[in-house]
Specification:
Blueprint: E1 8-13, E2 23-28, H1 32-38, E3 40-47, E4 58-61, E5 77-88, E6 94-98, H2 101-111
Antiparallel strand pairs: 1-2, 1-6, 2-3, 3-5, 4-5
């Protein structure tokens, strides 16, 4: 599994009622040191279902059908910035690529989360 830190994409089941209990991508919005200390992280939840134009709280992430983008996402995906959660690192099923720093900064701003400057 790739190391967890700010901007890392991972897959897990959102631990609440929203999202139909399916495995979905999420973005780490916590510093690595905090994750190691507590065993949990703050995540911004993502979705592959969205409209055009995007909602004000959605940010499109780089994707490529072959998984050749920095995010390693294969489907068009948005970060849903008003959908955040605390997530146990032990519940992560798989890790992926990274969200570029400028996009992570925008996602954190829209989510009301501090930008975790360390990678």
């Amino acid at each position: 599994m790739d190391p967890l830190g700010p901007g890392r994409i991972f897959w897990g089941v959102y631990p609440g009622d929203r999202g139909d209990g399916k495995t979905r991508p999420m973005i780490v919005a916590s510093r690595r040191t905090e994750i190691l200390r507590t065993g949990s992280l703050i995540a911004v939840v993502c979705s592959t279902r969205f409209g055009d134009p995007l909602e004000p709280m959605e940010v499109r992430l780089p994707a490529d059908p072959e998984g050749r983008s920095i995010t390693r996402l294969r489907e068009d995906t948005v970060a849903v910035c008003d959908w955040t959660t605390e997530f146990a690192a032990s519940d992560i099923r798989e890790t992926g690529g990274l969200v570029p720093a400028p996009l992570l900064r925008e996602i954190c701003r829209l989510s009301g989360l501090p930008f975790p400057s360390e990678r």
